Hints:
Blueprint (H helix, E strand, L loop, with lengths): L1 E6 L9 H9 L2 E8 L7 H20 L4 E5 L2 H11 L4 E5 L6 H15 L3 E4 L21 H10 L31 H7 L2 H7 L6 H14 L4 H4 L12 H5 L5 H8 L5 H25 L24 H12 L5 H13 L4 H14 L4 H11 L5 H12 L9 E3 L2 H8 L4 H6 L27 H18 L7 H4 E3 L1
Parallel strand pairs: 1-2, 1-4, 2-3, 4-5, 6-7
Helix pairs in contact: 2-6, 2-7, 3-4, 5-12, 12-17, 14-15, 15-17, 16-17
Bound molecules: flavin-adenine dinucleotide.
Amino acid sequence: MRTLVWLQRELRTQHHSALETALATSDEVIVVYFHDPKQTLGDANSAWLARSLQQLQQDFQSRKGQLWLIEGDFSTQFKSVLLNHKIDQVYYTFQLGAPFSNWQQQALQVCQALKIPLRPFDTENWLPYNQILNGSGLPYKVFTPFYKSLMSKISLLEPFNAPVEDLQKTRSVNCPDHFQSLPKDLQDLSNQSWANKILQHWQVGEAQAWLKLDDFVASGIENYDVDRDLPAKHGTSQLSAHLHFGEIHSRAILFALAPLESPRGQIIHIWLRQLAWREFARSILWHFPTSEQAPFQSKFANFYTELNDFDEQQDKIYQAWCQGRTGIPIIDAGMKQLWETGWMHNRVRMLVASWLTKNANIDWRLGVDWFNNTLVDADPANNILGWQWVAGCGVDAAPYYRLFNPIRQSEKFDAQGDYLRHWLPPLAKYTAKQIHMPSNVPDYPKPIIDLTLSRQAHLARRQQLKASSSTEKSALDECITIV
Ligand SMILES: Cc1cc2nc3c(=O)[nH]c(=O)nc-3n(C[C@H](O)[C@H](O)[C@H](O)COP(=O)(O)OP(=O)(O)OC[C@H]3O[C@@H](n4cnc5c(N)ncnc54)[C@H](O)[C@@H]3O)c2cc1C
């Protein structure tokens, strides 16, 4: 029996059911990653991917194994491998979002036509999506009850098998020379100076993911509750890209942190709750796949300036946002951090997303696009959930309609101005009191959008939408909150 293990976003060797089962039950195993340059999430993400694949290839080699890397149109390449290498069956791990959800459909068609069994293995989640449903058997749309239900079922989790040390079987079929090196598209990207600059901030791969977790558990998790909101601190795990690429399995993290009932478990739970947002985001995308493109609440379909209606002025504003030139220090600092490192602090992500959608009235999907291009952790489920949540058109919206005041947020969460000084050197000379407020920093560009007027305009539009929407709750006015 010759099995093809098709890797997608599980770039690791342990805690990998598809790979382990193939090794245990097949005579020969071929492990392949397919890369289609026309269907990537974005450049920063692909730069990480390139490094991660190289690392994984080395991990395979060091355990006497082999990883094939194939470039080109997915469907064509997949079919050709099945035929040219006489594959008997295909194993893969179920994945959500672009491009893999489409590719899984294409793989099914190819396999059905060739009469080759295609077997999906469990998801990259804590529990399968259909196990976390409300009393009516429907998916949760609000985080807190989802979280409670999820945590009540944690004991159902099956432990993983012991890690596989010997990958020799994956070398039983000779890998053609042209499948041994990094795809050309990823090689080119790896040579770009911007990609290299970003990757200087990161150690990529499975072993590094575990080191980072260990480091965070040893020294960061104790203060996570407070530090996670302070962008100037290194107060969060920074595991998001490792999780996105499946270099570490979220369920393996749970087991690594057990027992959760210990006194330290209370502290761990605070972080796990955040990790559970990832579970929630994936559950939403699984149950409501159209939310990847369209607002979860359909009444918002035409609320923000649509992509086609983008005029020159709006385009200028959008470009200024992308480049960190809005004139609002905390927004600009966040966008600079993103461009320099491929990552941005969660609170600042909320603020920049709020400014783009609620102050500049620009469609959240343009924000998603920029984040997809520049985040190393760009992720279909988390990115969409984050943007729709901030834009107010996603799940978990009620009972509040939040409007962020970026200056107030900056004063609260970067009280000393350290984050601003780090990312905006021209502001270094200003005191903690002056630095947040554009009017206090004369040699800094003026805000390109007035925060108060744009907030009022947004609320007026929101009221209009409410008036035209018969399903809107009448209590909306009381629920608007400016934070
Ligand atoms: C507008 C917007 C866009 C976002 N886009 C992405 C994205 O493309 N990819 C991404 O991984 N996260 C995204 N997030 C969520 C969050 O900002 C990042 O997961 C977090 O900043 C990553 O840093 P960390 O690993 O140090 O997180 P930690 O605080 O250490 O959290 C641990 C893990 O939990 C998960 N997590 C934490 N917060 C969230 C959240 N709000 N939603 C979903 N999962 C979460 C992540 O996997 C994270 O790595 C977005 C948030 C917003 C507001």
